[in-house]
Amino acid sequence: MTFPTRLQQVLDEGRAVIRSLMKIECGTGTYGFWNGNADLVWSGLTYWPSTLISISEPVYGVGTAAATFSVELTAKRDFGLEPDKLLLIESEDYKGRPLTVYDAYFDPDTRVMLHVEPMVYGYCDTIDHVTEGGELKLVGNVISGAIDNHRDGYRSASHEDQQLVLPGDKFFEFASRVKSEYFDIKL
Fold it and tell me: How far is CA 83 from the centre of its chain?
């Protein structure tokens, strides 16, 4: 992967500032959070500051099985993310909605955002309310985007479908024949 020149320079120097951004696309609105100290606007969305965005390591398995992970947001009044703002998620249709976590790279000298890289993607399943030390924390339980591997879609590995993508491409020209001949032999 090639990064912008300035980012590569500060990465090589070990001085890049890395922050986490989280976007959840609910039924009636999209919310953004990040572990900075002021509102951040990126790609047309305002990301609200939170002192803690914690993401558990997804449990990966072999094959195409979906994994689960959790994300945590803590309400901190001194960062502007008050409990009532955080609880707005409860009035939203969040179940099964896309959630993406990004790493954002900043210049350590100018604080300019240099690059944003998606790190993990999934669908929000449930949100738990936890109170620790008098502070409200929301814990989102997320099913990884690998669940898409098991959803039926309208695309197929066929010559006809490939022509819609790239007319003249013959990669799948014999796909249906190979499939039927393989299963005839196996039976």
Answer: 23
Q: Are 36 and 119 in contact (CB under 8 A)?
A: no
Q: What is the 3-state secondary structure (H, E, C) of 106-141?
A: ECCCCCCEEEEEEEEEEEEEEEEEEEECCEEEEEEE
Q: Domain segments of the chain: what residues? A: 5-151, 152-187
pLDDT tens for residues 10-49? 999 999 999 999 998 988 889 888 888 889 999 999 998 8
In this structure, the strands spanning 98-106 and 40-42 are: unpaired
Which strands sit side by side in the sheet containing 53-55, from one edge to the other?
A: 40-42, 45-49, 30-34, 17-25, 98-106, 113-132, 135-144, 68-74, 53-55
The chain-wide mean pLDDT, for the chain, equals 79
Helix intervals (H) in the chain:
5-13, 83-86, 159-165, 175-186
- 124-to-22, 24, 35, 133, 169 alpha-carbon distances in Å: 12, 8, 20, 26, 38
The bridge status of strand 30-34 relative to strand 45-49 is parallel
Confidence bin at 7 (pLDDT 50/70/90): very high
